[in-house]
Task: inverse folding
């Protein structure tokens, strides 16, 4: 990758694009090259407010970004309902695709996007940032250690935040024509991915949505949960909500140990993150404590997780450009499995909380 810098274009000026534009600047293999919005004025203001270089291109349409021959890759933070149009068009324009989550409204739409990427030889990755934090790799090493963790038996994940009244009234994530999956698509993408990650991305046999989901007046999910079941006896649950206090937990329990963390989506601190593990713990005499006590592991990073994501995506794109490598299939596969589970949970909700098989 020495001397290679992937030129990024950004489609849209969503709030999350501010974070990713900073990540593109911080990553050693990427350049903020262009931004497009529905108006030139909005794109120009976004570029100015977010430190784009003076040489960056500013466009008054998304098409203009995709038509720029010097743009290597695009980051697409548009509402989910627009993903299928702009992601497919980007792929046909030979632009590598970093796509905000949820990747699509359903797996049928996602398959159209992934087929366009595959047939055009472009790299696809969804923007699930925590997957790229070095802490995530260290935690995975522990889960894969049969001597310390044993066999996975259960996973519980939670991602909630208490949205303010303006969010609950006006944010795109509560609008049925923009992000119809609501909290399930936004926060549930993270909790579902956490469960799959802990289970080595083995799909569950079935899911059951938990009773008591909360909907807004337009029928968009504000809060929900689900249970997942595997044929070998593993179980998992998750809860996601726009109407509960900020929480982002993963608890994975094995036959010999457990793993727990409180900030898996956004670490408490940008340059370091921690997790705790316990191995063959038991009670002290008279049940007054634990022995041995759980241990804390701190992982430092020279780049925030979103910059690590951009760095890895840019590395893959650079390999395709300079070495004629094939696009990495891992990332589209993980996106599709996550989408399959969200689809099944939505069906379970719609059918009155029936058990629904997850069919790949």
Result:
């Amino acid at each position: 990758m020495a001397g290679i810098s992937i030129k990024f274009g950004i489609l849209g000026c969503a709030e999350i694009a501010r974070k990713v534009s900073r990540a593109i600047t911080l990553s050693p293999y990427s350049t903020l090259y262009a931004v497009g919005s529905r108006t030139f004025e909005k794109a120009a203001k976004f570029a100015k407010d977010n430190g784009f270089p003076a040489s960056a291109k500013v466009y008054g349409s998304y098409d203009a970004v995709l038509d720029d021959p010097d743009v290597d890759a695009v980051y697409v933070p548009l509402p989910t309902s627009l993903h299928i149009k702009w992601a497919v068009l980007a792929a046909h324009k030979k632009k590598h695709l970093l796509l905000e989550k949820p990747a699509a409204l359903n797996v049928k739409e996602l398959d159209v996007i992934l087929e366009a990427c595959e047939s055009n030889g472009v790299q696809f990755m969804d923007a699930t940032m925590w997957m790229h934090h070095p802490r995530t790799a260290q935690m995975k090493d522990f889960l894969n250690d049969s001597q310390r963790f044993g066999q996975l038996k259960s996973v519980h994940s939670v991602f909630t935040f208490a949205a303010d009244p303006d969010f609950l009234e006006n944010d795109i994530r509560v609008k049925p024509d923009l992000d119809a999956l609501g909290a399930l698509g936004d926060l549930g993408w993270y909790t579902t991915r956490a469960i799959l990650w802990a289970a080595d991305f083995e799909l569950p046999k079935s899911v059951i949505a938990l009773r008591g989901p909360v909907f807004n007046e337009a029928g968009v999910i504000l809060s929900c949960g689900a249970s997942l079941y595997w044929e070998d006896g593993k179980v998992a649950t998750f809860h996601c909500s726009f109407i509960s206090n900020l929480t982002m937990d993963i608890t994975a329990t094995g036959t010999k140990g457990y793993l727990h963390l409180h900030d898996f989506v956004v670490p408490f601190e940008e340059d370091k993150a921690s997790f705790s593990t316990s191995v063959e713990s038991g009670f002290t005499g008279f049940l007054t404590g634990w022995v041995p006590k759980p241990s804390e592991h701190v992982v430092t990073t020279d780049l925030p997780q979103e910059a690590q994501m951009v760095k890895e995506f840019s590395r893959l794109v650079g390999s395709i450009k300079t070495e004629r490598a094939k696009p990495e299939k891992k990332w589209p596969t993980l996106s599709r499995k996550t989408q399959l589970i969200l689809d099944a949970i939505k069906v379970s909700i719609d059918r009155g909380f029936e058990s629904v098989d997850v069919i790949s």
User: Anything to note?
Assistant: The two ends are 36 Å apart (CA to CA). Residues 6-130 form a domain with the Rossmann fold fold (CATH 3.40.50.720).
